[in-house]
């Protein structure tokens, strides 16, 4: 079993490394690959709180904006090193996540979702109206690209889409590796325990607020990092980059892939991010096809495609007992 899994992972990695070489003639395809990797990072960060801790953080698009604007402002207005600016953006996003979490975790359920959405809208409104800092609707332009500079040895600027692809691939694999280990650890199991029954977790002596805030901050850091990478890739940043439609797309990605599964956001992004472009030839019916796909998935695979496959595999092999910590329920 371990050999088969290792072979599968090695195959996926090999395809990922060779994929751009098959699309060298199409810069637009490389652009779609790059956006897919960014959305995988963002969706995984969202699913850490939503899928594994049991809260819907609709402030995430605002947190994404905090990471992007912090990095862009530091790099353009203060001339900071791009790598340090991106790390600072991720840290600032985590700090904002902590503040929002402190205020929002006083409530649960739909109230939590609405309250975090309100904070997100406040952040976007600030980005639109604080023109001296963010540029407002005029955007921040000329955001520098990251570069690797070793005096006398190497000077490489990430100026092409294929170079950004490999940068995003490395960061995305790093995020996936980190989250995989986190969710298999006692800390990850604590997040799942809070999701399943927070009252029971409290009765066992767990300080659930501390763990929820930790989950929120880790999620915010990853979201801020993806936002920082996105702004340096686009080299222009404005409020339109953080429209509610992006959050709706992330929700659709997780619902299609699987909310309480580790690989759900990855599968959802691989399907839904390129899908609008694949349906470009059916422009009049593109949204209709997209909607039908979403409805069919919700009706026939309410746990998402990955959850559906895991249930099928569990039934086929007649597994007993609980599944892994990144899976939602016991196989039925």
Features:
ABC transporter involved in vitamin B12 uptake, BtuC, 332 residues, mainly alpha, two-stranded antiparallel sheet, 15 helices, two-stranded antiparallel ribbon, 70% helix
Which SSEs are present, and which pair or pack?
Elements: H1 2-18, H2 27-50, H3 60-77, H4 82-104, H5 109-129, H6 131-134, E1 140-141, E2 147-150, E3 154-157, H7 161-184, H8 186-196, H9 198-203, H10 208-234, E4 236-237, H11 244-257, H12 264-272, H13 275-278, H14 286-300, H15 304-317
Antiparallel strand pairs: 1-4, 2-3
Explain this structure to me?
It is built from 15 helices and 4 strands. The longest helix has 27 residues, at 208-234. The protein is globular and about 60 Å long. A hairpin with a 3-residue loop joins strand 2 and strand 3 (154-157). The chain is mainly α. It has helices spanning 2-18, 27-50, 60-77, 82-104, 109-129, 131-134, 161-184, 186-196, 198-203, 208-234, 244-257, 264-272, 275-278, 286-300, 304-317, and strands at residues 140-141, 147-150, 154-157, 236-237. It has a single domain (26-317), classed as ABC transporter involved in vitamin B12 uptake, BtuC, CATH 1.10.3470. The strands form 2 sheets. It has a two-stranded antiparallel sheet. The two termini are 22 Å apart.
């Amino acid at each position: 079993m371990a050999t088969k899994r290792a072979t599968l992972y090695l195959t996926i990695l090999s395809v990922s490394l060779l994929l751009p070489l098959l699309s060298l003639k199409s810069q637009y395809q490389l652009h779609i690959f790059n956006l897919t990797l960014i959305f995988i990072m963002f969706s995984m960060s969202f699913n850490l709180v939503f899928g594994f801790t049991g809260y819907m953080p609709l402030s995430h698009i605002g947190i994404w904006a905090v990471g992007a604007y912090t990095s862009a402002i530091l790099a353009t207005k203060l001339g900071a090193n791009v790598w340090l600016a991106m790390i600072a953006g991720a840290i600032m996003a985590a700090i904002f996540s902590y503040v929002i979490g402190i205020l929002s975790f006083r409530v649960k359920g739909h109230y939590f979702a609405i309250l975090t959405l309100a904070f997100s809208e406040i952040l976007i409104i600030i980005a639109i109206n604080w023109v001296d800092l963010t540029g407002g609707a005029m955007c921040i332009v000329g955001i520098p690209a990251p570069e690797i500079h070793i005096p006398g040895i190497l000077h490489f600027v990430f100026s092409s889409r294929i170079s950004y692809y490999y940068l995003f691939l490395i960061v995305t694999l790093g995020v996936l590796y980190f989250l995989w280990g986190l969710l298999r650890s006692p800390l990850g199991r604590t997040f799942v325990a809070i999701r399943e029954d927070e009252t029971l977790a409290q009765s066992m002596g767990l300080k659930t607020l501390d763990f929820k805030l930790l989950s929120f901050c880790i999620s915010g850091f990853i979201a801020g990092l993806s936002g920082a990478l996105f702004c340096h890739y686009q080299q222009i940043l404005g409020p339109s980059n953080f429209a509610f439609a992006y959050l709706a797309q992330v929700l659709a990605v997780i619902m299609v892939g699987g909310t309480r599964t580790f690989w759900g956001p990855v599968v959802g992004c691989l399907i839904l991010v390129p899908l609008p472009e694949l349906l470009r030839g059916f422009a009049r019916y593109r949204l209709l096809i997209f909607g039908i796909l979403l409805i069919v998935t919700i009706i026939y695979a309410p746990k998402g495609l990955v959850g559906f496959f895991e249930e099928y595999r569990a039934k086929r092999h007649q597994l007993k007992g609980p599944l892994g910590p990144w899976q939602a329920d016991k196989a039925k």
